[in-house]
Design brief:
The complex is a heterodimer of chains A (173) and B (252). Chain A has 173 residues and is α/β, with parallel strands linked by helices. Helices cover 31% and strands 22% of the residues of chain A. Chain B has a single domain, classed as Ferritin, core subunit, four-helix bundle (Ferritin, Up-down Bundle), CATH 1.20.1260.10. The model of chain B has no long low-confidence stretch (mean pLDDT 96). The chains are: A alpha/beta (173), B mainly alpha (252).
C-alpha cells in the first residue's frame, strides 16, 4: 500500500485491533460495560476504554483481573484510574479485583477513535494527531503553541489567534 | 547496599540517571522564569521520576525479598548511586538547565531507541515508553537552544558558557565499562559508545542553527558509574532522603 493510501484510509493500529477483539470475544462483557462508566480523571468525557488505558478484563472465580497501561510513565492519574475502576466494580458487586500494569505495547494517542477525539474537542481539549490544530472554541486553525507542556502530562498549551482563547491540546505520542 | 547481579546493577544505573535528573528538574518548581516554563520543567521532571520508578520497580523485582523501589531511592548513600555526573550538576541558571537537558535528550533518544531492542523484555518495554517521551523532550530542548542561542546577547552568552561548562561531562554518556560490555554481548544493554556520532551530529546541527559554537573537547570527567561523585550529589540526597532517614518506612 502506498503512503498516500494509508493517509486516506484510517487504519487501525494492530495493537488496537487486538484490544477490540479481546473485548468482542470476552466472556465478561458486562464487566467491560461496567467499566465504560469510569472516565479519565483529567478529561472526564472519555472512558478508560476509549482512552486505551483499559487493555483487558478477565475473571477467575470471584476475582476480576484488569490490565491497565499507563499513558505517560510519570502520570499520577493512573493510580486514580485504578481506584475509580475498583470503585465501579465494587458498586457492580465485584469486590475482589487485581490490577496488572502492563507497559507493552506502549500506549499511543493513535489508539484514540475519531469519536473519542470529538468528545475531547467538545470538552475543550484539541487533539494534535490530525495535522493542523483547530481551536476547540471557534474551530479556527490559526493557532499557536504557548508551551509544549500544559496542565497535565498529556497536554500542551496552545492559543487561538482568531478568538484569542488559550486551550489544551492532547499531545500526540 | 551491595548489588552483585549484572542486570540489576544495570537497571539501577538507568534508574539513578532518571531519578537524579528528575530531581534536579523538580528544583525549578515555582522558580522558573515564567508560569508555562515552570509547568513544562515540572512535567519533564515527572517523566524522569516516572522512568526512575519503572527501573527501580524492575530492579526490586529482580532482587526479590523486602526490597522496593523506595529502597533504591531513599536507602542508599552517595557511593551507591551510579548516575552520570551530568545529571547531578547543580541546576545553575535557566540556560544551564536547558543546555544540560538538550545534551542529555540528544543522547536519551537514540539510547532509548536502541534499548527497545534489548533481549530483556521488561527493559525493552520501559524503553518503548521512554522513547516517545524522549522524542518530545528533545524537540522542546532543541527549540530552547534556538531561542536562547539565537536570542539576545545575554542569552547567547549564558548558553555558550553553560555548554563550555557541561562539555567535559558528556564523555561519560558514551563510556562502556565491563558491566555494559558484558551485557551488550548478551543483547541486554546498549553499546553507548556507538551512539556518540549520532549524538554529536544532532548536537552540532542544532547548535550551529542556534549560532552557538560546539565546545572543544578537552577530555572527560567520569566516575559516576563507580560511585565517585561531585560534592553536589550528597546535597541532593540529604534533601531527598531526609524524611525516610529520620522516619524510616514513613508513608504519606
Amino acid at each position: 500500500m502506498t503512503a498516500r493510501m494509508a493517509e486516506c484510509i484510517p487504519l487501525l493500529p494492530v495493537e488496537e485491533l487486538a484490544r477490540r477483539r479481546r473485548r468482542q470475544e470476552s466472556k465478561v462483557g458486562e464487566i467491560w460495560a461496567l467499566l465504560d462508566e469510569v472516565m479519565d480523571p483529567e478529561i472526564p468525557v472519555i472512558s478508560l476504554y476509549e482512552l486505551g488505558v483499559l487493555q483487558d478484563v478477565s475473571c477467575e472465580g470471584d476475582t476480576v483481573k484488569l490490565v491497565l497501561t499507563p499513558t505517560y510513565i510519570g502520570c499520577p492519574a493512573l493510580g486514580i484510574m485504578e481506584e475509580d475502576a475498583r470503585a465501579a466494580l465494587a458498586a457492580g458487586g465485584y469486590d475482589q479485583v487485581v490490577v496488572e500494569t502492563r507497559l507493552a505495547p506502549a500506549w499511543t494517542t493513535a489508539w484514540l477513535t475519531p469519536e473519542a477525539r470529538r468528545k475531547m474537542t467538545s470538552y475543550g481539549v484539541a487533539s494534535a494527531e490530525a495535522g493542523d490544530i483547530g481551536c476547540p472554541q471557534c474551530g479556527s486553525e490559526n493557532t499557536q503553541v504557548i508551551s509544549e507542556f500544559g496542565s497535565t502530562a498529556c497536554k500542551a498549551l496552545f492559543r487561538c489567534l482568531a478568538c484569542q482563547e488559550p486551550f489544551d491540546v492532547f499531545k500526540a505520542i | 547496599m551491595k548489588l552483585n547481579d549484572p542486570l540489576t546493577r544495570y537497571v539501577v544505573r538507568l534508574g539513578d540517571d532518571a531519578l537524579i535528573m528528575g530531581h534536579r528538574l523538580s528544583e525549578w518548581m515555582s522558580r522558573a522564569p515564567f508560569l508555562e516554563e515552570d509547568i513544562a520543567l515540572s512535567n519533564v521532571a515527572l517523566d524522569f521520576v516516572g522512568r526512575a520508578r519503572l527501573f527501580y520497580q524492575y530492579a526490586a523485582e529482580l532482587m526479590g525479598g523486602e526490597v522496593t523501589e523506595d529502597t533504591f531511592a531513599y536507602q542508599r548513600d552517595v557511593r551507591d548511586f551510579t548516575n552520570l555526573l551530568l545529571c547531578e550538576l547543580p541546576r545553575g541558571d535557566f540556560a544551564f538547565t536547558l543546555c544540560r537537558q538538550f545534551l542529555y535528550d540528544a543522547f536519551s533518544l537514540p539510547f532509548t531507541q536502541a534499548l527497545c531492542h534489548s533481549t530483556d523484555p521488561q527493559l525493552a518495554a520501559i524503553a518503548a515508553k521512554a522513547e516517545k517521551e524522549s522524542r518530545y523532550h528533545l524537540r522542546r530542548s532543541s527549540d530552547w537552544m534556538l531561542r536562547l542561542g539565537d536570542g539576545t546577547q545575554e542569552s547567547h552568552e549564558r548558553c555558550q558558557n553553560a555548554l563550555e561548562q557541561l562539555w567535559i561531562y558528556t564523555d561519560e554518556m558514551f563510556e562502556c565499562d565491563d558491566l555494559v560490555n558484558d551485557l551488550v554481548v548478551a543483547g541486554v544493554a546498549v553499546n553507548t559508545s556507538s551512539l556518540r556520532s549520532t549524538w554529536l551530529e544532532t548536537v552540532t546541527e542544532t547548535l550551529r542553527t542556534a549560532t552557538l559554537a560546539v565546545p572543544e573537547s578537552q577530555g572527560g570527567v567520569t566516575g559516576g558509574r563507580v560511585g565517585i561523585h561531585t560534592d553536589d550529589l550528597g546535597f541532593i540526597l540529604a534533601e531527598m532522603q531526609f524524611m525516610q532517614r529520620a522516619y524510616p518506612g514513613l508513608q504519606w
